[in-house]
Amino acid sequence: MTAAAPPVPPGACPHPHPPEPATAPAARPLTPVSKVLTLCLHALLLGLLVLAAGRAVADSAPRAGWVIAACALLAAVYAAGVRAPVVHRSPRAGAVWLAGLGAAWAGLLALSPDGLWIAFPLYFLELHLLRLRWGVAAVAVTACAAIGGFLAHSSAATPGAFLGPLLGGAVAVATVLGYQALYRESERRRELIEELITTRAELAAAERSAGILAERERLAREIHDTLAQGLSSIQLLLRAAERALPEGAPALPHIAQAREAAQDNLAEARRFVRALTPPDLEHGSLAAALERLCAGVPGPRVRFSLSGRPRVLPTPYEVALLRIAQSALANVVRHARAGRAEITLTFMDASVTLDIVDDGHGFDPSSAASGSGSGSGDGGFGLPAMRSRAETLGGLFTVESDPGQGTAVAVTLPLPLEPLDAMDPVEAP
After folding, report:
1. Which stretches within 130-278 are classed as H helix?
2. Which residues contact 402 (CB under 8 A, 6 or more apart)?
3. What are the φ and ψ backbone dihedral angles of 245, each rounded to 5 degrees?
4. What span, in angstroms and rounded, lies between the C-alpha atoms of 269 and 223?
């Protein structure tokens, strides 16, 4: 309420609108309503000056020439302030300009009682260019000066001589305050709309990126589970056939060529799968990706630890564990209000386990599972999505939490029976 009023673009008359910092880099272009108010203020002041000068001439006042000169001086001071950018950008310069206007107006008021009406546009200028408390004080001084000037030219004191300037000042203050309230509400709505548009664009980009990553993961799984495994099986069968045939059999060269073709295509399938691997896993192991993930989490301190003898996991396993860790940490940041969190990756003989523990305020897992709790994140979709990833690979997903007791998320995936990496199915000897 006491902030300095914002600047107005050069060439425009100040008009009442809500306060902004005087150091704003640039004022927004005038809206149609602001332009209308500016033109009305110009026209009002010009009309009142013409009226005062015209009445002095029509009534053949003794000091008609002085009245015309005072009106011209007031108009010149007003025009100079309107065209001076510094008046609209500096509160100090605005106050100096108002002082000059007040002095010119006081001269006109001393010469003619018609100068009383110039007080009304001055009210708006004072409320616009000065802080609110100083603006109201200036309005009160202007109203008192108008009343004094009228009494000096009239021998009879009437109620209208007091009520007119006072009511005019009250109307000006109420008008400016109402306009400021409407303007602030409009600005809040504009900022909300801009934020909504920005959020919608970010959400669309995030959904597009998530869709691309999900499609890459799906293609990697399909190629691995169909082409790569099929070519690996073909190699095994060809090796068996090669061993079953006697040495020097005519079919042996053809079998060798078939094995080479299967080997080349298997290597190509592996290259496709590696190219479709999620970016977080492209330049290192799952443990390295989880460690980078912990280092980049904003807010709580997150520590990563590795237990057991690391093993090479199939890409679907690594992708699932990494995505579950990302989703769980997102819930910690958004909902848990935790100070610390810890991720532990444990390799055992027949399984791999991922634990995410935080010291946040916890939640009720039963309500989160139904979509009504805050701990599931994203409106209750986070935990079901993590559970679905684990169960798709035959794993076990558990959540332990109580309000005020923190949260522990555990994922256990059974390791493949074959000792080799499922991403590199079978190597030909």
Report:
1. 132-153, 159-222, 229-244, 252-275
2. 362, 364
3. -80, 145
4. 7
CA dihedral sign of residues 259, 264, 270, 272? negative
Q: How far apart are CA 135 and CA 14, in angstroms?
A: 14
Q: Rg of the chain over CA atoms, in angstroms?
A: 40
SS3 label, residue 289: helix
DSSP annotation of 182 reads: H
8 Å CB contact between 262 and 234: yes
Structural contact between residues 382 and 392, judged by C-beta atoms closer than 8 angstroms: no
The model's pTM is 0.39
Phi, psi of 152 (to 5 degrees): -70, -30
Tell me which long-range contacts 33-40 makes (C-beta under 8 A, separation of at least 24). Answer: 38/8, 38/12, 38/13, 38/14
> Please, which residues have CB within 8 angstroms of residue 169's CB and are 6 or more apart in sequence?
119, 123, 139, 140, 142, 143
pLDDT value at residue 32: 64
* DSSP 3-state of 341: strand
Token representation of residue 91: 């509160």
Q: Return the half-sphere exposure (C-beta side, CA atoms, 13 A cut-off) of residue 258.
A: 17
Q: Across-strand partners of 268?
A: none
Rounded to an integer, what is the distance from CA 20 to the centroid of its chain? 21
Long-range Cβ contact pairs of 171-176 (< 8 A, separation 24 or more) = 172/120, 172/123, 172/124, 172/127, 172/139, 173/123, 173/127, 173/136, 173/139, 175/16, 175/124, 176/16, 176/124, 176/127, 176/128, 176/135
Least confident of 23-27, 97-101, 247-251: 23-27
Cα–Cα distance list, 75 to 89, 98, 118, 219 (Å): 21, 13, 11, 77
Q: How far is Cα 329 from Cα 70, in angstroms, rounded to an integer?
A: 74
b/e 44-65 (16+ beta carbons within 10 angstroms → b): ebeebbeebbeebeeeebeebe
DSSP assigned state of 301:
E
Task: Tell me 31's DSSP state.
Answer: P
Closest to 395 measured CA to CA, from 348, 339, 334: 348
Structure-token pair, residue 145: 């000066």
pLDDT digits (tens, 9 = 90+) for 198-242: 888 877 877 787 677 777 777 776 776 677 778 888 888 888 888
344 bridge partner residues:
305, 355
